[in-house]
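In these records, each integer encodes one residue's backbone shape. Here is one protein:

___
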Amino acid sequence: MGLKGKTALVTGSTSGIGLGMARALAREGANLVLNGFGDAAEIETLRAGIAKDCGVEVAYSGADMSKPDQIAAMIAEAEARFGAIDILINNAGIQHTAVIDEFPDEKWDAILAINLSSAFHTVKAALPKMRARGWGRIVNTASVHGLVASSEKAAYVAAKHGIVGLTKVIALDTAGSGITCNAICPGWVLTPLVQKQVAARAERDGQSLPDAKAALLEEKQPSKDFVTEEQIAGLACFLCSEAADQMTGVSIPIDGGWTAQ
């Protein structure tokens, strides 16, 4: 898809969906800035491995995505090294489930900060250099929960609906500039976040893990199969390609039919 010479920053990319997207962009020739938490030695092995396998430059930032000052510093450091961020993938996210009258205030604040506000701060910081170059791709990881709701997920659903709305505004604010902004809305993906939900469900209902996975899919996802990280990464790469030049402000479900119901 011809991303050689571009630089991509992917937040929340030391595992799961973000790592899948980062690897796919690197395979297309983009230099990378990884971001996320984890064991320092493991992250360095990951960084060096992608750089070697894909023949691109790979940097790492441990910026806390709930801290606007750290986000601004991460963007500035990336621009100092690579010149600009051409592709910005806002993927960092956390989750907590509880009925709304028992939902901890601190969890609400943390989820809104990381899942929604961080995207505002990264985009605000990265846009000036994108505008100067006349090209940019912003891809926000939303969720089916940016389009529909589920119980016990007040903060997550609110944040992901916010991401869908923010995506539309960014698209309008950048229309005609060579910059696009779109959102990807995955259904169930077997990420560490979802694995925790499966384990909690198995314990709650006295099920085996395979039975809990099947029950989770049966409830929402008509395909009865998980979306894969590779499928999401492929969609992200397409949105960064010339074929998607006139796609902006859209939120694309990749959800096994969940939102078709």
Summary: The chain has a mean pLDDT of 96. Residues 188 and 194 are 7 Å apart (CA to CA). The chain has eight helices and seven strands. The chain has two domains: 7-187+228-254, 188-226.
